[in-house]
Amino acid sequence: MKHGQISSKELSDFIRERATIEEVYSRSMTKLAKTASNCSQLGTFAPVWDVFKQSTEKLAACHMELVRKLQELIKEVQKYVEEQAKNHKKTKEEVASTLEAVQNIQSVSQALQKSKENYINKTLEQERMRKEGATQRDLDKAGLKVKKATETYKSYVEKYANAKTEFEQRMTETAQKFQGIEEEHVLRMQEIIHSYCQSVEETHIQIGEVQEEFVKNMENTSVESLIQKLAESKGTGKERPGNTAKSLTHGAKPRKRKTFAIPENSFYSSSDSEDEDEPRKFHVQIKPVQTNNGTHQHKATIDELKASIGNITLSPTPAVRDASHSIHSFMHRIIHVSASHTSSLPPKISVVPPPNRPTTPLGTATIVPPPRPLSRPKLPAGKLTGISEVRPFSPPKMSNSSPPPAAPLARAESSSSLSSNTSLSASNTPTVGTSRGPSPVTLASQDALPIAVAFTESVNAYFKGADPSKCIVKITGDMTLSFPSGIIKIFTSTPSPAVLSFKLSNTSRLEQIMPNQQLLHSDSSQSDTNTKDFWLNMPALTAYLRKSSEQNPAASYYNVDILKYQVCSNGIQSSPLNLVVYWKCTSSTTDLRVDYRYNPESMQSPAALTNVQVLVPVSGGVTNMQSLPNAIWNAEQSKSLWKLSDISDKSENEGSGSLRAKFELSDGPSVPATLAVQFFSEGSTLSGVDMELVGSGYRLSLNKKRFATGRYMADC
User: Fold this and answer.
1) What is the Cα–Cα distance from 317 to 272, expressed in whole angstroms?
2) Amino acid 244: pLDDT
3) How many Å apart are CA 438 and CA 29, to the nearest integer?
4) Max CA-CA distance within the chain?
5) What pTM was estimated for this model as a whole?
6) SS3 44
7) DSSP letter for each residue of 264-307
8) 105 and 160 in contact (C-beta within 8 Å)?
9) Residue among 670, 658, 666, 665 at smallest CA distance from 584
10) What's the pLDDT tens digit per position in 115-145?
C-alpha cells in the first residue's frame, strides 16, 4: 500500500514534466509563427509565409491544448493521491483487530513452546527418579509436577488452537481487503494512463489535420497563383492604356451631344446617323403605376417571399450581420411592389429567385389552428364607438437613439456586460450594444478572468392559411463573447495565457454550426452529439482584442463574434406564435380576422413575447376602419397596425386570441395581402443551446439569451 502511494506521486510528477515540455514547445512554436509574420512581405513568395504562420499557430494551439488537458489530468491524480491516503488511514483503523490477533498468536506460540519444554523436562525427571529407586514420597512429588505441567501444556494447546483460528480468519479478511485496495489502485492508475494516452492521441490527430491542411494549402499554392497574386497587388489595371501619342498629335475629336429618347415600342432602336464615338444620353419614360388588377403581381411577390423564407442560410463571415430587414421597411417594399403591375411598365421587371440552398424538411405533425377565444366580441353592423377614427401611422419608438438601459452585471463585473439593445429599426435581431464607460474593476493575472456570453436568435416564419403543413420556419442564431478591456493587458503581458475553452450543450438541436475559423478550434473526433467542445486560438484572440482596443481605446469591453448556427426546425411546432389569417372581400367592405396562439413548446424555457406588433396592408381605398382590439390606421400607406401587450401562457386564454377589423371601401374589392408580425423575447432562446466554461482561469459573469422575429409573415 505504501508503494502504491509512491507510484501515484511519481506518475503525477511524470505527467507534470510532460506538460512542461509541451508548454515550452508551444511557446517556441508561437515565437516561430511570429518569425514567419516578420518575414518579407514583398515578392511572389510573400503569401507562402501566411500559410506557414497560420499552420504554426495552429500547431502551437494544439500543443497548448494538450497542456491544458494534462493539467486537468494532474489535478485528477492529485485528488486520487489524497483519496488514497484517506483510504489507507481508514483501512489501518479497520485492520487493528488483525494486528491484535497477530500479536496474540505470537505470544501464545511462545507460551506453548515453553509449556511443552517444561512438560518434557518434568516427565523425563520422573522417569529418572523411578529408575534410580527414589522414595515413594519423592516419586509422588515428581508425579504432581508432571501432572501440573501436563495441564499447563494442554491449556496452551487449546489457546493456540483458538488463537490460530482467529488469526487465520482475521488475516484472510485483511488480505482480501488489501488485495481489493491494490486492485482498485491499479485500475485507477490504468484509467489515468488511458486518459493520458487519449489526450496525446487527440493532439496527434489534430496535429495530423493541421499538417494535412498545410500540405493541401501548399499544393494549391501554384506558381501561377503566386504570380497572379503579385500582379493583382502591384498592377494598375486590367485594360491596356490607349495611344496617348496619337491623341496628343491630332488633338481631341470634336463631339456633338444630342438627346436620345427610347421609344416605348422599340427598346433597342438607335439613330443610324449617330456618331459611334459620341456618348449616349438615355431618357427613360415609365408610365404611372395603375391601382387595379394586381392579382398576378401579388402572387409572384408571395412566391418570392416563400422562397426567401425557405432559403435563409448562415453567412460564412465571422462578423455579426443583421438577420433581416426591418419589418416596416420590408413590408413597405413588399406592399408597393405587390400593388404595382408589371404589364404597365414598358421596360419589363423580372423577379430573380434566390439561389437554391439546403432547406429544412417540413414536419409531418399536425397542429390545429389557433382556437377561437371563448368570449370573442362581435363587430356590430354600424360603427364602433371610439375606434372609427382615422389616425396617422406612427411606428414604435424603438430606435438606436434611445435604447433601453443596459442590463448590469451582478456585483462589480460591469466591465464585461452586454448591453440590451432591442432596436428593431435596422434589424429584427437585437444586437450586442456598445461600451457603457470606464469600469471600476481591476483585473489581476492570478484571478479568474470574467467574460460574458450572449445568444441571439432570429426566427423567420411563413404561414399559409390554416394548413400547418404549409408553414415554413427557419431559425438562426449567433454566439458572442464579451471581454473586459483590462484582460488585454493580462493577455499581452503573459507569455502563454490560459486557453479559453468551453462546451456547447444541446447541439443535437442544431442543424449547422459555423464557427469563426480565425479564432475558434473544435474537436472533430468528439462522439457526443449533444455537446461540442471548443477552444480559442489565444494568439489570434489577443491580436484581435489589441486591434479593437487601438480602434476604440475608451471602450470598457469588447465583443467578439464566436460562431453562428442554424436550429433544426419542425415546421409550425418550432414557431413561438402561430398565425391564421382570414379575408372576406366585397366591392364595398373587407372583413379581416387574424387568429394567433402562443406556442410554449417551441422554446426550451417558455418566455413572454414582448412588443408584439401586427402590420396589415389593405387596398381598395379604405374610408373607415372598425377594429377590435383598437388598431391604428395609416391612410397614406394604407396599413393598419395592432400593438399588443406581452403574450405568454399566463395571458388570457393561455396566449390565444384574435384581431378583427372591418374596412369600408371606396374602390373595392381589396386584394388579400401578406401581413407581417414582429416581437422579441428576453431571457430564453428557441434552441436551448447553452455554454459552460471548461478548465480554470476564467469565469462566466453573464449569460444573456434572447430571440426576435426576422421575416414573420402570414397569408390567407
Assistant:
1) 51
2) 45
3) 36
4) 174
5) 0.46
6) coil
7) TT-TT---TTS-TTSPPEEE---PPPPSS--HHHHHHHHHHHHH
8) yes
9) 670
10) 899 989 989 988 888 888 888 888 888 889 8
